Amino acid sequence: MYGGGNVFEATKFDDLQTEDPVKLAEFEARIARGEKIEPNDWMPQLYRKQLIRMIEQHAHSEIIGALPEGTWITRAPGFRRKMAQMAKVQDEVGHAQLLYSAAETLGKTREQMLTDLINGKSKYSNVFNYPAFTWADSNIISWLIDAGAIVNQMANAKGSYGPYSRALERICAEEAFHLKYGHDAVVHMATGTPKQREMIQAALNRWWPPIMTFFGPSDKMSTHTETLMRWKVKMASNDECRQQFLDMYVPKIWELGLTVPDPKLKKNMETGQWEYTEPDWDEFKRVINGDGPCNAERLAVRRTAEERGAWVRRALLNPKAKYVRPLA
Amino acid sequence: MSLTSLDPRVTRLNLPEEMPTIEPKPELDQFETYEAFHQKKEGAAHTYVGPVHAPNEDVAFLFAKEQYSRRFPCVGLWIVRTENVMVTPYSGDGENVYDMMRVEEPAERSAQAEAYEIFHLKKRGKAHTHAGRVMATSYQEALQEARTQFGDKGPIVNVWVVKSKHVLQSAEEDKDMWTTIPEKKYREAIAYKVMDKITKYKEEHKTTAP
């Protein structure tokens, strides 16, 4: 599972003029040849900062994303679904571990990342600031949020940073199960009793607006974005990802006789592009900045887990331990 | 007012609605790092899978087993403290890093030759793979020895050198720890077959498709 929609803000390292022109040319030539960048290579500050931000947000989205689904483990209908839901949640937390390590190779420690998450300084996917009211909500998350995540991750796996690509390869392999599991759960409800259909349709109606914001607002095409695309940090625009998602999943929603709560949603056969009601980006900004239905709860739960485990970590710490960045 | 959640277990924690910012986590709150190498099947070379954070080698082994062998076939696992891995420079793809390294005088030399494990990265973005074991009195000598023994097999982008005594290896007699019970199909994509239900639904509701 992954929070897409990275907003690529300008940083103070935006100015490539301060970079060594010879090293920059070598770096760009390496990427142009299709080679991956490894942690010890020289890289521009902008590349490093942007990747840290992106991989860190991705890692946070994995652990925070496990919370709304995690609460449904004990209430999942039937033993088999409990086991599957548990396996999925465990996968997501494992993904966070892989991603934190990939970000660490760029120089930000896991301690710093967790501090920034709890203090609200680093973001995670905004969709997890919405509640999962019923088991059907959990199914919609498992299917469609993971589907969105896969669109994003498949694109990013082809990016230029070695450790991130390696982590994403493992992650994508596990996500295949999540997607099928989620689809199976939704199909079960949609082809079940009238009450089950009603539940899954209601959950889809609740989740559709957040899903449409999942990939983030349209990119402002700036030289900054172009640079990041040339460096294979950003692999596809937010709109391209959204279009691909709609192409792949709207037909699968419709074939179940479910409706999408957007009267404008249709594929324009001439342009080949989906048309839809523009998501409420003001709400998106308000929620991502802390004012959503579940922001406080998500961070409080994460924080409590961290605080309650602190004494165990202190007790286990080897006094001779020395921090070394992971290698790759 | 304390925080109320849809999940009664969260509500019962009685957490305040607003919480002050936390102090930055102290250094090593998340422990030091270890690198893990797995063996996919009998006879295959150990391959790098990734790092774990752990308070000691044994816990690192448990974490790595959970993280890297839970979902994929695995018959062996090696753990090395990150600090104990000597890393050469990286060359470009298609080149051989052994040809680019200068021979350096070792800073430390052991009185007697000891075993070193050599790992090669053949292409950027791929994973380091165990090339073999050499005997030497220093990391530098181990590299020279590795070059002679396995250094001419195509492009090698990067080399890791580790003293064998620094590698925690899963034991032969513990092999049964890798057997997964077969009834875990619920976590495989292949266990979910929905087409029958969808086809049946579509046949029964032919007119509803938009």
UniProtKB/TrEMBL annotation, chain A:
Matching entries from Pfam families are given as: PaaA_PaaC
| Single GO BP term | phenylacetate catabolic process
Which InterPro entries does the entry link to?
Aromatic_CoA_ox/epox, Ferritin-like, Ferritin-like_SF, PaaA, PaaA_PaaC
GO cellular component entries: cytosol
GO terms of molecular function: phenylacetyl-CoA 1,2-epoxidase activity
Report TM segments.
none
Query: Superkingdom of this entry's organism?
Result: Bacteria
Q: What is this protein called?
A: Ring-1,2-phenylacetyl-CoA epoxidase subunit PaaA
Species this protein is from:
Pontibacter ramchanderi
TrEMBL record, chain B:
Q: Entry's InterPro entries?
A: PaaB (IPR009359), PaaB_sf (IPR038693)
- Record-given protein name: Ring-1,2-phenylacetyl-CoA epoxidase subunit PaaB
Pfam families listed in its UniProt record: PaaB
